[in-house]
User: Fold this.
Amino acid sequence: MPKNKPIIMLSAGHACVDVYQGAVTALVPFLVAERAYAYAAASGIVLAASLLSSVAQPLFGAVTDRWALPWLLPAGTLLSGLGIALSGLGGSYPLTLALVAVSGIGIAAYHPESARVARIAADGSHTAMGWFSLGGNLGFAAAPLLVAVVATGGLRLTPLLAVPALVGSLLCLPVLRALSTSVRPSARGASPAGRDDVASFVRLSLVVACRSIVFVGLSTFIALYASARTGGGTAAGTAALSVLYLGGAVGTVLGGSLADRWGRVRVVRTSYLVSVAAVAGIVLVPGPAIYLFAALTSIGLYIPFSLQVTLAQDYLPTRVGTAGGVTLGLTVSVGGLAGPLIGAVADATSLQTALTPLIAMPALSWLLARTLREPAAAEER
Assistant:
């Protein structure tokens, strides 16, 4: 198989899985309109998917640390699609909740093992890992459009949403077959065996958690905030959210290239320092400049995205599955839990006041990243 083909196929498969992460929130308006769900019921569906997936990922990671389970890639992909595809059938709220939870379990099963397999396929290239992460970003961003096209005809058409899962499961099969013949059966991942640096891993996890809080907070409220700051109405808010998502795709690819040249930790520190000024621009600068700062913020927050995964794997070389599960799953849930708090402060004061503390989050990430060093095993390569 050509050198870059495995990563390209894994990236495309990653996109097919992460479509279902974005599909849950995209389905909410259709569920509210067709089934008359209250806002609390609708938010419960989103929470069931995101929280279960985030918490379960480290558990799957711990399992894959004991046994290599590459079959989790196609199985997790199919499970994530099955839950969402069936969620539009029938009117039972508990059944819908259960099906969305099934999708969340599939997503959780996929990510830790896929991060390990992608690391092997990348053969130490941070740029290649950036392309793998890009697939997830694009899949998440494409979900609202895909759901809108399907669900506009009614929730009875949601079985059509199974198509990405079928495609994604097929894409990963030739990659797994090729790697099984080129990698020793005992190989646990691309990182060499070594001593775990738990203290650095914990600090890195805190870095990721702070990043999650600012990105999820902005994703939730930037559309409303941009509408108010620019006076452009709903279209202005939608444009700001789109810029935020598209900037993430740019940052993900850029991060890998920069790390191959200057090293992961240095790039992570610099990107968070830039993000402080960018987030401050979103919150404090009025008018159309918010779009520029939204792009800079997203790029700055996504440059470290794939780098943090490989750093976590190198800090825990004997538990790469757990490392991937925590950085891709558990720490992300922190941002989701912070969302309601931001909303409560906005209701009591103003949205600008509620968003102002987000400026401190990339600053905290920068301070914590200053305590990190390149893992010893990586420096020896």
Remarks:
- The chain has two domains: 5-182, 198-380.
- Residues 184-192 have pLDDT under 50 and may be disordered.
- Residues 5-182 form a domain with the Growth Hormone; Chain: A; fold (CATH 1.20.1250.20).
- The first helix runs from residue 5 to 35.
